[in-house]
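Dear support,

I submitted the protein below through the web form. The confirmation email said the job was done, but the results page showed an empty box. After a refresh the structure appeared. I'm attaching both so you can tell me whether what I see now is the final result or a partial one.
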Amino acid sequence: MADSNRWENIAGILAKVQISRQTYPKLLLVLSLIVALAAMFPRAEVVELEYKVGGVWAQKDLIAPFSFPIVRDENDYQTEAAHARQQTYPVFDRDTMAAQRQSAALDTFFSDLNRALSEFPASRSGRRVADVQQALDSSLIRRLSASVDVTLSDAEWGMLARLRAAGRLVRMKEVLSAVTKRYLQVGLLDRSKQAVGHAEAAVRVGTTEQIVSVGALYDLSDISDLLENSLAESYSGGSGEAELAYKLGITHILPNLVFNAQASEQAVEAAVDAVPRTTGYVQENERIINKHDRITPDVKRKLDSFMRAKTERGATADVPSQFLGAVLHVTIVVMLFGIYLSLFRKKIVGSFRRLGLIALLILIVGLVAYLTREIEVSTPVEYLIIVPAASMLLTIFFDSRVGFYGTVILAYLVAGIRGNDYSIALASLVAGALSVYTVRDMKDRAQIFRSLVFIFIGYSVSIAALGLERYEALSAVGEKMAFALGNAVISPVLTYGLLIFLERSFKLTTDLTLIELSQFNHPLLRMLSEKAPGTYHHSLNMATLAEAAAAAVSANVVLARVGAYFHDIGKVVKPTYFVENQRSSKSRHDKLAPRMSSLIIAAHVKEGIALAREYNLPEEVVDFIPMHHGTTRIDFFYNKALEMARRSEDETKIDEIKEQDYRYDGPRPNTKETGIMMLADAIEAAVRTIEEPTPQRIGDLVEELVKKRLEEGELDYCPLTMADLTAIKAAFVNVLVGFYHSRVRYPEVPKKRPRRVAESIPPDDLSDGARETPGPADVGSTSA
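What the results page shows now:
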């Protein structure tokens, strides 16, 4: 006995562990959502106060608890810093030894040139081509040619040889030295003037600095022109000496004003550091702003500076605590939504897919709110946060109460992410709530676009109310309304686009999908009407019954109607084995054993499920196919089997008949809609067997069948209460009395005045002519 109790305790613990494991993914989802939203909350700033230029300070008088500087507007500071950078002079170092190095370089070059030219013949007339080529090929001249950045032709080498022979090479050197020295005295930049980028430059010589106009200095392009002109004046007559001297001189000019990048950068940094970041000081106990005062730009700078100083005074210690506060903030808001769903929407909490969809919508809205805060623009982009789109999607996927409650939660989260922005919280709440009401009873997808006007009205009223309260300028109010209009257009379009994608991704069914399935042009319904017209007619009657009952107990009317259309779709496989589709008095079951007949009848459930999934019907609709029978018994063939066994007078045959062989496999109904379908199926089939269906007889039969299903336990897993069953029975009776109301007997028409048949029969009788002849049991519906 003790071992038995121990094993029972272990089994109980394991059952609890299994339940917990099923809960793990949901808890992880919620925790991930909370952390992600908390990470979007503002950091390193105080968010308890909300203020804008032009608004009215609604808090109590704000007194400075400590002294702090007034920080300048960041845009103003950056503008002045950029101006300071532009006004900073680039620094150039003057090389005082450049002239000496240049003179020494010319001396060395011409000394080498003299030595190289000594190999040339002295006279032009006596020069031979072979001698010139031999001189050019000498190693000394090759080295000399390689040492200068100039290419000399044979004629130019010959001219140099003649100048040397005439003693005029020395004069060329003196001319070049004098000209280049004169330029260096003014100053030669090591880069073009355009590259300097300033009209003036700081020229440093040792520890002294002089501001010089860049236009008064020379760069290499200036020297090139000036050297050419100067040599042209010294060498007149067009002998070509000026061009040769230019070639030799231009390669030896050395800039003596060298750009100092490090000193220039230091000068820029010093100029930027000199730009003040503050415009004043607020002393301790000084009043920052009074209650009901208008927030001016100067006051806003003081408030911003106070928030910044308060953060800086405890920034290191407050970062973890601030994040913890954000986590608690989000947890409180999300927990309220979770409590509501746990108490009133258990079906949502029990589905990971549904919770995942809600978490995704909340996360998307939070991310948009975060981006609107991070984007540095002066326009009111916060009115583009797509709270109405999320509100409409929550309403369409679930219901209007979930949509409204979700809108409230989203408004609070958006306000927190935006830094406790009350304005956008109110506007989002009003616009989102109106969008919920506009899609509360969806008839088609195009109805989503009717929300545009109401979303804009919600935003506009909120913006106007807060604008008047805060004395905002009309231009600011108009700008906000323009962005609100953009949101009013974007939200319906986004809702329409995401609806199908989310339906497919999360495998959820909305009323819009069900409404589309309720159209009679669906392939399965067309197939049913063609192959099993009796079953099709039965399904239409079932839809009317289920719809009325669902409305009476606040169930999903659309789901009940669509489930009725498809609940017997499996009968299209063997339609003539069901009594409503028989065209003669003989039944195909007459030649079959009761067990075989029951197998054929029960098979329409599995065949219906296979067809439904082949045509991609939603699982909510597929559930109606097995659940409308549950685990009920196929009484007609079970009783027939018992009767045949009794007639055989063989007791063993009676014992061989197992009741379970004549039951449907189930499962039993687990929703209000499937429970209604089970009752409607049983009642609709049974009422057709009443010979004179008076209201009293119909009411008694409905009462009897509902009581029977209740006693059989078929409704044990169904959330229908006794009050619901009472309402359902009343709805069934009202509909069935309308179906089978008594007829007025018309007198016979005299033979001498023949009339058309259609004129002598009331319309109701014409329609009844298409009804199947009632039999002892409708083996295709409930009795089967």
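Response: this is the final, complete result; the empty box was a page-load delay. Residues 36-64+281-331 form one domain.
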